[in-house]
Design goal:
single chain, 197 residues, alpha+beta, 6-stranded mixed beta sheet, 4 helices
């Protein structure tokens, strides 16, 4: 079961190794210092066929409009930890009650080309929660089967132009949704760690 394997992975001690948008590039990644700290919640439903919770951002946002993302955002000064930030953001964006999240742990931080250092927080949630997207930020809340998201056969390497340079990135398709960029990169990183178990 994919969820059992995720639980087993996060129960083991490990030394975080930052990775990110540069993993598929030949140029050197930016230093970790100076990046804006952020946290996202990788929420997995606790059911026979676990689902990964994702959002589609509204089209009018300044950063990453219309993209698929995990609930999350910048770490605020009042956040006690990365976990607290991820839970707060998930509550603000989709009304996910923090008390309904069983936190399993954190994954490697992810550096983005837009200047963020994102810490993915993995948590288990009950199925069927009545989630409500915050309309100013979230256009849609949806789920992708965890087994589909973690299957390396569904991880497609693609490229495109960004700020005059060719950039390579991962995409994961499911139904009408295309997961790409940092969100897909974090999923692929989790899948790669699971392969090494």
């Amino acid at each position: 079961m994919p969820l059992d394997r995720v639980r087993s992975l996060l129960a083991r001690p490990f030394t975080p190794q930052p990775h990110g948008d540069w993993d598929l590039m030949t140029d050197a990644p930016p230093p970790v210092d100076g990046l804006m700290p952020a946290a996202v919640l990788m929420a997995i439903t606790d059911e026979a066929q676990p689902q990964l919770l994702l959002t589609k951002r509204t089209a009018h946002l300044k950063r990453h409009p219309g993209q698929v993302a995990f609930p999350g955002g910048r770490v605020d000064a009042g956040d006690a930890s990365m976990i607290a930030a991820a839970l707060r953001e998930a509550h603000e964006e989709v009304a996910l009650p923090p008390g309904q999240v069983q936190v399993l742990g954190m994954l490697d931080p992810y550096r983005t080309g837009t200047g963020f250092l994102i810490t993915p927080v993995v948590g288990v949630v009950p199925p069927g929660l009545a989630l409500r997207p915050q309309p100013d930020e979230v256009a849609e809340v949806f789920h992708v089967p965890l087994a589909h998201a973690l299957d390396c056969a569904n991880h497609l390497r693609q490229s495109g132009q960004w700020q005059g340079e060719t950039r390579h990135f991962w995409t994961i398709r499911h139904d009408r949704h295309v997961i790409w960029g940092a969100t897909a990169g974090m999923i692929v990183a989790l899948a790669q760690r699971l392969e090494r178990l």
